[in-house]
Design brief:
Its EC number is 3.1.6.13. By secondary structure, the protein is an alpha/beta fold. 22% of the residues lie in helices and 19% in strands. The protein has one domain: Alkaline Phosphatase, subunit A. Strands 1, 2, 3, 7, 9, 10, 11 and 12 form an eight-stranded mixed beta sheet that branches. The chain has a four-stranded antiparallel beta sheet with strand order 13-14-15-16, covered by helices on one side. The protein has a two-stranded antiparallel sheet with strand order 4-5. The longest helix is centred in the middle third of the chain and has 26 residues.
């Protein structure tokens, strides 16, 4: 009798994979990444034991597009998702996902928390049963994430606040989503046998609102954030590049500030409290990650920690993602692999992309390599990636394969050239998109071009450019000075524009 199966059985010594994804998490990490304000004891330990990529970048600073890009190994233009409202298997192609590839090779795959963005962009199932061996786990308290459960310090009423320190005993079900996710991940780990597993754990913090146990604020007094960086729009900023942080403006406590639209500014004392709560949220998640890692057999488990994108903490006067700036697209990427530990952490400075993680984890696990997609027709093949494996960078501190370019590309859509409430210029729906900002980051420069875009046919029009940006990280690492009109850099601008247009013709 012939038995056909879609999964290839792997030997029992195949390494496990634990993928930890935080939400809106810029590299607020003490060790290695050098953020002295961060208290990240457990992530620090992971950095010390593995490899960390100092210049890793997401492909779009919005949850669903970034996660679908990472988990399919393809760019947002290939997946054709820039918002939350389409499922790639129905609108773009039947692409094999990262967990699906592991599942096809004999792994038990499980999703905990926010891995795919829940909803239409993952078929309301988190792509089960194709990506996962069992239905994805979502915390019961997820439904209260944006509810009026914050006790307002001014009047004691329940509000939908941005700043939302809580006591667990006052919260629905007396817990929080990330605590529930940690318990589920620990439960899963207690059930694994010799079959290798791919476990993805998606934490919701430090995404807003900052609904976290109040005790973590005590570890981050406001005074330590008293030094404000340059927090104003960059010189020469084209208005199309601006994020007006509408999700923050929607919160009850922020509304009371009467911050003008779209450019602010936010009162200084509230800026400091936002930063305080963000760092406290990171420490809260770090403690949960420590609990989780205690249950992991690190001698046979690959651990990767990353984020879907960053979040601006006042850079350029912005308090959000929704842009192509480093603050919005730069992410932490930490990988610890059995057999590749070194006495000291290994810092890798090459510019890499979040979609590189697909091929990297496949190679580290010893699975058949995933082919690179055809550059001109990336949507044609079911199983391929537009990223590249980072394993060569992790081996003997190599600079990578010959011919590889170390450039990160990102993009962000807009409905018009000026920030707007309707349509929402931070999160425009596909039908409202009229402009696409394509951006490239080299080791020295960031160049961005905001060009005409047709959402009906997904067509770019380079003949109409609504704005350009050029930042030199050697002299301006915070991207505060747009040099696009500087005559001595005209040759650099033209070369970068040509390269970007070649990538996105």
């Amino acid at each position: 009798m012939l038995i056909i199966t879609t999964a290839t059985q792997r030997p029992p010594d195949q390494p496990n994979v634990l993928l930890i994804i935080l939400d809106d998490f810029r590299p607020v990490i003490n060790y290695g990444y050098g953020d002295g304000n961060a208290i990240t004891v457990n992530i620090d330990r992971l950095v010390q034991q593995g490899f960390f990529f100092q210049n890793a970048f997401a492909q779009q600073a919005l949850c669903a597009p970034s996660r679908n890009s990472m988990l399919t190994g393809r760019r947002p233009d290939t997946v054709r998702l820039y918002d939350f409202y389409s499922y790639w298997r129905q609108t773009s192609g039947n692409y094999t996902t990262l967990p699906q590839y592991f599942k096809q090779h004999g792994y038990r795959t499980h999703s905990v928390g926010k891995v795919f963005h829940p909803g239409a962009s993952s078929n309301f199932t988190d792509d089960f049963p194709l990506s996962w061996s069992e239905p994805a786990f979502h915390p019961l308290t997820d439904e209260y994430s944006n509810a009026a459960v914050c006790i307002d310090p001014a009047d004691g009423r329940l509000k939908r606040n941005l700043l939302c320190p809580v006591r667990l005993e006052t919260q629905p079900l007396h817990t929080l989503p990330d605590i529930e996710s940690t318990e589920e991940a620990k439960r899963f780990l207690s059930t694994v046998g010799r079959q290798p597993y791919f476990l993805a754990v998606g934490y919701r913090k430090p995404h807003i609102p900052f609904r976290i146990p109040a005790k973590y604020l005590g570890l981050h007094p406001v005074a330590k954030f008293a030094t404000l960086d340059l927090d104003y729009p960059p010189y020469g900023l084209p208005t199309v590049a601006w994020s007006s942080y509408l999700d923050v403006r929607n919160r009850d406590d922020f509304r009371q500030l009467n911050v003008s639209f779209p450019f602010g500014p936010v009162p200084d004392d509230f800026k400091l409290r936002i930063r305080q709560h963000y760092y406290a949220a990171v420490t809260f998640v770090d403690e949960l990650i420590g609990e989780l890692l205690q249950e992991v057999d690190l001698s046979r488990t690959i651990v990767a920690l990353t984020s879907d994108h960053g979040w601006a903490l006042g850079e350029h006067g912005e308090w959000a993602k929704y842009s192509n700036y480093d603050a919005a697209v730069r992410i932490p990427l930490v990988i610890r692999a059995p057999g590749m530990q070194t006495p000291h952490q290994q810092k890798i400075d090459n510019v890499v992309e979040l979609l590189d993680l697909y091929s990297t984890l496949v190679d580290l696990a010893g699975l058949p390599p995933v082919p690179r997609c055809d550059e001109q027709r990336p949507h044609k093949a079911t199983t391929c990636t537009e990223g590249k494996s980072l394993v060569p960078l992790m081996q003997r501190n190599s600079t990578g394969d010959d011919g590889d370019e170390w450039i990160a590309y990102s993009q962000y859509p807009r409905p018009g050239t000026y920030p707007s409430l309707f349509p929402n210029s931070d999160e425009p729906k596909l039908r409202h998109i009229k402009i696409m900002g394509y951006s490239m980051r080299t080791d020295r420069f960031r160049y961005t071009a905001w060009i005409k875009f047709n959402p009906d046919y997904f067509k770019r029009d380079w003949s109409t450019i609504y704005g350009e940006e050029l930042y030199d990280h050697w002299i301006d690492p915070q991207e505060n000075m747009n040099l696009i009109d500087r005559a001595p850099l005209a040759t650099v601008k033209d070369a970068l524009r040509a390269k970007l247009q070649e990538k996105f013709p």
